[in-house]
């Protein structure tokens, strides 16, 4: 009986998580002090750099870049302006997971005195990213800017094994993140991610 109840709670929570993620909308004409993008795919980078070029923030941090990846390689891959990169883009090499992203981003935010920051990452990764960022820095206003590479509004996305696997994996991670917040311990340490691999 307990197993059935726990299973029902898990499945119900997953449906709530999926509905929350699918309801994320990209804000229009948003303005912030700065932009942070959590690496894991070129689509995130392209979106963040486009926001920077449109003046949505004064400066951009690319968090979680592999140590062997240079700013020049990222600029060429994204076909971005060399002037913009030299002026307004910082590369973070320390973060290896979402917890590290939050620590790296918060250090950068405090160094520059920012108060309102756009967060760019995939829609399914956004809830956990915001939890970690707000846990590390309750003062800064973090504004979600979700990147959608899987249309979760489709009624049949459950039938797509890859999308379902990513969503279930992220749901388990967010449960562990919540548990870590309650226990104060490290309930989950995800596998390291480094650009350019997708989350």
What level of helicity do the residues show?
Answer: 40-55%
Distance between the termini: 36 Å
- From the structure provided, what is the oligomeric state, counting identical versus distinct chains? single chain
Q: Which regions are unreliable across 5 or more consecutive residues at pLDDT < 50?
A: 194-199
Continuous helix count: 7
Q: CATH class, please?
A: Alpha Beta
Give a quick account of the main beta sheet: strands, pairing sense, barrel closure: 5 strands, parallel
Tell me the number of strands.
5
- Second CATH tier, the architecture: 3-Layer(aba) Sandwich
CATH homologous superfamily placement: HUPs
Order of neighbouring strands in the sheet with most strands = 3-2-1-4-5
- pLDDT averaged over residues: 85
């Amino acid at each position: 009986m307990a197993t059935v109840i726990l299973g029902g709670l898990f499945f119900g929570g997953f449906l709530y998580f999926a509905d929350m993620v699918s309801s994320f909308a990209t804000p229009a004409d948003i303005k912030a002090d700065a932009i942070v993008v959590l690496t894991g795919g070129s689509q995130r980078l392209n979106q963040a750099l486009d926001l920077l070029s449109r003046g949505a923030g004064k400066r951009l941090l690319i968090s979680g870049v592999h140590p062997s990846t240079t700013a020049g390689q990222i600029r060429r891959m994204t076909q971005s302006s060399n002037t913009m990169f030299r002026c307004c883009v910082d590369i973070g090499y320390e973060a290896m997971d979402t917890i590290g992203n939050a620590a790296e981003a918060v250090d950068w935010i405090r160094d520059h005195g920012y108060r309102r920051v756009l967060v760019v990452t995939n829609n399914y990764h956004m809830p956990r990213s915001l939890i970690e960022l707000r846990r590390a820095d309750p003062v800064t206003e973090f504004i979600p800017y979700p990147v959608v590479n899987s249309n979760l509004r489709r009624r049949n996305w459950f039938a797509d094994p890859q999308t379902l696997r990513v969503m279930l994996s992220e749901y388990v991670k967010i449960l562990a993140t919540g548990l870590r917040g309650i226990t104060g311990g490290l309930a989950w340490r995800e596998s390291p991610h480094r650009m350019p691999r997708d989350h």
